[in-house]
Amino acid sequence: MTVLPTGTVTFLFTDIEGSTRMWERSSSAMSEALARHDEILGDAIEANGGYVFKTVGDAFCAAFPTAPEALEATHCAQRALSVQAWPEEIGALRVRMAVHTGATEERGGDYFGPPVNRVARLLSAGHGGQVLLSLATQELVRDELPEGVGLRDLGERRLKDLFRPERVFQLIAPDLPSGFPPLKTLDARLNNLPTQPTPLVGREREVAEVCGRLRRVDVRLLTLIGPGGTGKTRLGLQAGAELLDEFEGGVFFVALAPVSDPDLVASTIAGPLGVVESGDKPLEETLKGYLQDKELLLLLDNFEQVLEAAPLVGELLGSCPRLKVLATSRAALRVYGEQEYAVPPLTLPDPKRLTTVEKLSQYEAVGLFIERARAVKADFEVTNDNAPAVAEICVRLDGLPLAIELAAARTRLLSPEAMLPRLGSRLKLLIGGGRDLPARQQTLRGAIEWSHDLLDEEERTLFRRLSVFVGGFALETAEEVCDAGSEPEVDVLDGVESLLGKSLLRQEETEDGRLFMLETIREYALERLEASGEAGGLRVRHADYYLLLAEEAEPELRGSQQAQWLRRLETEHDNLRAALSWTLGQEPDATEPALRLAGALWWFWFWRGHFSEGRRWLEEALEKDERLHAPARAKALAAVAWLALYQGDLERMVAASEEGLGLDVEKGIEGSTALFLRIIRGVAAREQGDTGQATILLEEALALGREAGDRWSLALALLNLGGVASNRGDYERAMEQLEECLALSRGLGDAGLLSAALISLGYEFLLQGDHERATALNAEAAALLQEQGLKSGLYYALDNLGWAALLRGDDEQARDLLKESLALSGELGDGLNAAESLDGLACTAAARGEAGRAARLFGAAEALREAMGIPLPSAARALREPYTRAARSRLDEVEWTRRWEEGRAMSQEEAVALALKDERD
């Protein structure tokens, strides 16, 4: 009788690539080939000490006592398969193979545990004829490789089990093929699916069912429904990973757990997709445009918090025919065409009819309990003695994954027999839950409550206090908010470590080890916080902390640490939103913190492209303020005005800046805010074509800046004065002011301001015909912006580079650069630069003899400027004039006017689409 290898085992899994098609071509030929295939594999495995423990169709699953024996078996099998004469009707059989080593459990002639799942995932990444090895196996065979055999390092890859990345190696031998397509791993397709801290246990049937439903042509929206803790998110993620190869546009995970405002759903979806709003165009419309032609799967997680946003999902699906949505929610979205999938509990044994220990472990709920128990107690085993208690625990927890994980975490302290009576007594608290809640949700509440009751008093205090954070937190932040100045005091470091070990906290695999609560647990902790009477004081400390963080970041967003601080604020965005929301809920005489917080964050919103969200927070803070806090109000007004400029809302820009200036006169606002308000009002006057008023305001700001020694405001005033001087035709004065601005900016460390100075000075050289100098300055600006990851000014540099190329006669390069500028300005919502780029592409079309196309683009650019109320300066008009004349000379007046009017009638989106097309007119 064969003795199966146990303990640390090396697994070999195989299957035939394209076997289904081969059966369809000729079942008789395939039957003959499969018999030979089975003989070759069986012989190679047996000859090298292996054991075939399972076959599924044409797939072999074998176990070996040692890794070198498994490797030799793969080599022998592939060599024999490669020289075999196969039936002509089906062609050669190409067999892929994967080898992985790990500690596993053998029960009843089968194997269970993470290594079995891992080797299956490794196999799915390969191609026919290819042999893949894991790092664990490579370590065991690298010093015992047969002569001529080698291993090629294919790098660290993310497999479709979403567990930690695996370093993959390929068997190389002279008698085997070595060239294969890229591995079919998560890295090969667009996605943002997060790595999971533990492997998925069970759920094979559910994953297959969800994938099958989503593959159907008539299924566009599938909602995984179940109470908190059912494993909806993990199931959805695994289905997304399995379907990745079937969505050319990728699979994108959108975490809605931190979002409670339905108005933020569009921006939350846009984030992972890299979509930013486009000026005065609603973000929803930008999303539709981005997704319209993409074959893409969106995984919208925890939608129950924002059900009022469900119509947005329907609109996206209606506008984007190749888009599919997989949602997880505790309630249906109630959108037309939605299909629901009720996520069942894990499979459970019948505690009244217990089977053998080996068979008991095959139930998913028990398997999950075992795996998670071993994570905290490595020698945990299900025995004849504890099997009834383990089965009862899983049944009483209704097979809910989160509840089982919480229970299994207690095996560090309690045996299953000791755990069972404690669990039973805590579940009596279910009668306190709402009668309208599903039974499983009440069971989960009981499990969490039981876990909470096992904490000591200090742990309970920390547990409820940590619920104030939204979207996670750093350890240092928790120490500041949850301990400093609070009674009773808690040891945050020890407490966090304890809560991590008890599965009430989780930690991300990032450099800072960010911590977070699962939302189901956080909801319970929030209830405890409210009941404790600490909520108000804790929210004050939370808001105070993030106000200080934002005000610390504000000056850094205009300095050399700009990129680092932008990343930090992005990480804390959900907490910043929570702080804003809470402070805005206070009485009007206590809303100064909200004004200060919004006023400190607007540069962050600007650089990250959160124009609409930033304005919404600022406008709400201004409305609540009732003109009680002049300095903070003035800063918020300046922020609103600046963001409005980039959205093309000149009317609001003027109104906000004028109100701010009125506060300056009335309340004597001082410092950088007063300076900035004058600059903004001067910019508004310049955009309106009132160069006289613009000069007065900017000269006033310039004088104040020199007097105060405020070099940043001084540089910004000079930058805009140079633009005003250029607009009125005083090019010598413009050059003087812009060169002074550039000299100042180089010493300030603000990449945005420096790039603006380079771009503006480069544009002046462009107007003077010095294309070489214009190109050099704008190229420097573009490189700087790209290096810092700042998009807000990049399109201006690209536009100027495109014009320089056009003026020196390189209309091909000009077209490419101007298209890139147009696309980017559209993404970020700068309508003014969109008009500039449309004009540039019109001139490029004229240079290429495409008169009709040029006329339409000229007309579209003019209409866009008129809609914004921003006239074209005379110098810019003179730059366009030769191209306009050339295009008009190719058409009669009637045809020119017709094409021009066609362009004027276009929406901005239609004009951009026309400009970005490669077709000749």
How would you describe this protein?
The chain is of the alpha/beta class. It contains 40 helices and 16 strands. The protein has a seven-stranded mixed sheet, with helices on both faces. A five-stranded parallel sheet has the order 11-12-13-10-14, with helices on both faces. The protein has a two-stranded antiparallel sheet with strand order 5-6. Helix 1 packs across helix 2 (27-47), helix 6 packs across helix 7 (232-242) and helix 36 (831-847) runs parallel beside helix 38. The model is unreliable at 425-442 (pLDDT under 50).
Task: Name the features.
921 residues, 58% helix, Alpha-Beta Plaits, Rossmann fold, globular, 40 helices, 10% strand, alpha/beta, seven-stranded mixed beta sheet
Number of helices: 40
CATH topology of one domain: Alpha-Beta Plaits
Proportion in β-strands: 5-15%
Distance between the termini: 80 Å
Q: In short, what is this structure?
A:
It is built from 40 helices and 16 strands. It is an alpha/beta fold.
Write the SSE topology.
Elements: E1 8-16, H1 19-25, H2 27-47, E2 51-56, E3 59-64, H3 67-83, E4 95-103, E5 105-107, E6 110-112, H4 114-124, E7 131-134, H5 135-141, E8 150-157, E9 166-172, H6 204-215, E10 221-225, H7 232-242, E11 250-255, H8 265-273, H9 283-291, E12 296-301, H10 310-319, E13 323-329, E14 338-342, H11 357-360, H12 364-376, H13 387-396, H14 401-408, H15 416-426, H16 439-453, H17 457-466, H18 475-482, H19 492-501, E15 506-507, E16 515-516, H20 519-532, H21 535-556, H22 562-571, H23 573-584, H24 592-608, H25 611-625, H26 630-646, H27 650-667, H28 672-687, H29 691-708, H30 711-727, H31 731-746, H32 751-767, H33 771-788, H34 794-807, H35 811-828, H36 831-847, H37 851-868, H38 874-888, H39 893-905, H40 908-916
